[in-house]
Design goal:
Belongs to the IucA/IucC family. InterPro entries: Aerobactin_biosyn_IucA/IucC_N, IucA/IucC-like_C, LucA/IucC-like, PvsD/AcsD-like_thumb_beta, PvsD/AcsD-like_thumb_helix. This is Siderophore synthetase component. This protein has 591 residues and is of the alpha+beta class. Helices cover 46% and strands 19% of the residues. Strand 2 and strand 3 form a beta hairpin. The longest helix is centred in the N-terminal third of the chain and has 40 residues.
Amino acid sequence: MTFARHTPSLNTVSLQDHALDGEAQRHAIECLLNCYLREYALPRNEANLNYQAQDLPMSLRQANGRCISIRLPGGRLVVRIDRASLLGRCHYLSAPYFKGNQQSWRPLDAHELARLLCTPLSGAERVGEMLQQVANSLLITRTFLRHSRPANEVADSLLASEQHQLWGHALHPTPKSREGISHDDLLACSPEVGARFQLHWFKVDPALIRHQGDDPRSTLRDLSGRDDAYPCHPWEVARILADPLVQRAQQQGLITYLGALGQSMYPTSSVRTLYHPQLPYFMKFSMHVRLTNCVRKNAWYELDSAVALTRLLGPVMNELAMQQPGFRLMPEPSATSLDLSALGTLEQAREVTECFGIVYRENLCAADRERYQPQVAMALFTWDQQGRSVCREQVQRYADRAGLGIELATLNWLDAYAAQMLGGVLYCLFREGVALEPHLQNTVIGFAEDGLPSQVWIRDLEGTKLVPEIWPAERLSALDERTRSSVYYSAQKAWQRVGYCALVNNLGEAVFHLASGSTALEQQLWARIGDLLQVQSERLGHPEPLRALCAGAPLPSKENFMTRLMMRADREAGYTLLPSPLAIIEKSQCA
């Protein structure tokens, strides 16, 4: 009787797990195909987004939707889609099928697809590492799907948006890869499962603690309940305890490991940056863990540059507050770490400095969180677990309040958002020589009472760079040479990064989800963006990149797939030039 009573439950769990595994596979395949299409196949005319041939697998002949085809060195792929955006971003309805030379069609899983796409492009070592990371990302996505909880269980809108980004970067080949993290540690500290955890603390001789900028010790006291304690992220503890300088300091009684204690904090979408609604700061910790492309440590010079940029950009932000009300940059006024240089070499001491490094980013005040109900952009321009675009629900609420049809409401909504975001970002670049990094995870959106976007915050000064023609070395004389070089981008590189983040990563995904497969609405949304760009170009004196953009120049798109495959640092990523939707619309109107 007991067995019979539990058998349906076990079967239900098994079926549910099978369905979740299928969703994880589907999303991994979608990321791989979209990356490959955008970075490789489309620029080389090796893809057909409206494939009409009769030579198709039987299951695709009988399904609705249109097919795309991709030529590969050893054959070709076909897959059914329900939409393809003007930027070549697709949503897939079937598994990809591959037909090699003199072979029949066969469906591929994510691992087989990754091997097929990567092998012709690189050597065995690089392909092997890429395949491991694809497998790791897929396994972790499965884990998150099994342990996720509904976003509506969290009253804090910012926290809910930080902790419910199950899919991650839609145009990255390994959006959820986290190397070397155990299953238990993953569940204990990952935002995707609503984690909340204590920091690990060390009793530290005060002479070893270094802080720059504002003094954050009151925050550390509030968290730990002690005056003599310094924290680290749980995923960094083992590395710290194994460090020879730390062991030497322990032997001399300068450092004592206390374990986990104090108030718990919530991981945000970046994983290593932690949030507590009652603290004045987000705290960005070091983790020697590769998340997607980068090992997420706070390099010693990044601790210096965060505080220096906050100070240097103060006047810029004050001016921007008058020029573009509603657009703000989140300052990072403090950084701390430990200095063990007296116990070893400079290189050894810098390793400890980076392990213990913390950057303190100003939190949004409680009044702003209550008034604007902020959300991270990446949590809006994505799918929920039922396959619905999250932002469409937001727009529908605005439409209902305003008594508008969904199409006009969508255009108004995008207008309000894009005007704030582009106005601030382009002013900073072309008037002040400051290249922000407004990708979806760095952009926080606040809303007016009617539901329209009214506020935009850009965060993470690690990605903020300065153009040397406007910021010559004498303006940065307080920085040492290594820190100064880390904050510079050439004018071309600054435009590439800003153009990609703002127009491709951010607004490209916004339009994709807001249009919901309607080609006519997608064209109208891009036309609105074109109008906004023209206004900004006139406002800023028609800088050449904006003048060219308004005339239909291609958009720079960062190569996440090739950067990861070739093991390049993110700073050295290449860019693919995408045909501009503005030019495509212009041609269709003239035809």
